[in-house]
Amino acid sequence: MLHSFRTSVRMLSTSAALSLLLVAAPQAFAATPADTLVEGFAIDDIITIDPGEAFELSTAEVTANTYSKLVMLDPADTSKVIGDLAASWTVSDDGMTYTFKLKPDLKFASGNPLTAEDVAFSFERAVKLDKSPAFLLTQFGLTGDNVAEKAKATAPDTFTFTVDKAYAPSFVLNVLTATVASVVDKKVVMEHAKAMTPSADYKYDSDFGNEWMKTGFAGSGPYKVLAWRANEAVIMEANPNYYGEKPKLKRVIYRHMKESSGQRLALQNGDIDIARNLEPNDVEAVSKKEGLSITSAPKGTIYYFSLNQKNEKLAKPEVAEAFKYLVDYDAIGATLIKGIGEIHQTFLPKGQLGALNDNPYKLDVAKAKELLAKAGLKDGFTVTMDVRNTQPVTGIAESVQQTLAQAGIKLEIIPGDGKQTLTKFRARTHDIYIGQWGSDYFDPNSNAETFVINYDNSDEGKNKTLAWRNAWDVPKDIEEAAQGALLEKDAAKRAAVYEDLQKKALAQSPFVIIFQQTEVAGYSSKLKDFKLGPSFDTNFVYPVSK
Fold this sequence. Notes:
This protein is an alpha+beta fold and about 550 residues long. Helices cover about 30% and strands about 20% of the residues. Helix 1 runs antiparallel to helix 2 (about 15-25) and helix 10 runs parallel beside helix 11 (about 280-285).
């Protein structure tokens, strides 16, 4: 069966082979093909694979393996940024203009040359589309009206980027490692652009290929996307035009598999090469199985639940504090996240500048009841929580449901897939949302901005941070301190600002932060050079071979 499958793929055209793979991907093979890496992975959070719009963790891994950026995080040292498309860069004396020189002879997967014009177009496109990740670029003063002048090609191999303030250079460069800074093929994208009628909500006459790019591909990374089908699979194929180290395998398939037990069995049976969402019991089982191995890496991803301040009960400060005393952190740490995370209650993950390791909250029902009584809710109330139906968040939600009940709070769990729960959360129509947040770039501002800055608390607000999603009207002293930290070039002083911000957020924010992820994967021992990176977008597959 295996040999006939592989032979058929070789003989078919790309589109026909793709159809076969999409049909076969969710099913069990006798064994995975020798030239193909198959990962079992919960990818139901993917909404789009357009890097100008995507803002989900699974998508970021896909785009990291299929698109290139000017610069990237050094996987070996997260304190450094290294060149990707850029051969070198300089910063002007006033700290306002960044000039990047591109490497020679760059090409997209399409075969089109990659030039500074494509870089400039990618910045302009992301800003004008104004999707969820656009604020990462607009925070530098870019607007639809000025982006063509502020981010431009000054030669075929030279791109200049002018910011509005003399930020710490490390901050600017770290932001440019984010998915939204991926460079897209202007020619391919605009060939698929859809004409638009300008309106009050969207003033441009083109969608810049956004509708097509939701499932289309226009990148230059080591792999190219052949297809994505929601809740089924992502299929990637080696890009022969990639400028860097060539992929070792011809094809990579991410098969959507939600259940840890299903991933473990598929791995043991040889149906997949890697299992990405193993729960503690399955991690232990895999570690004892001959021919299988376990690898892990600390991640800058934190898990939390948050209280929508539009709910008048959840908006009471005493209620937010009470919730922080109604989590059994010790039990969660000893069971649900054993080996896959550690209790962590502040918004900066360990490993980032200024991160605090303070965990002041413990399960204290009596204290929580006092706070609820002070809020005028001594008899409790009923509230809902939107929960992605994967582990460990489902288990954590059920644990919280039990401890909340001890204080008289009835929690109704509303399960859904990643797209459903995220869409509701982003529309601010939830009561409580439980999920995860991974830093968009390895700088403390990535988390500080989203947790403690809310630029515009109206429903029409453009910069939709996590604070905005929860309708938290952040105190001005907290916002101003977070924004001021960007201009502080002294690392020690900047770290002190973030330490203070975390203490204030612990006391005042509607976020209950629970743990920091340790990513764990089980894999076939026949794989070579498979490892997990330090962030959700540094899990690179091009070095992997069999």
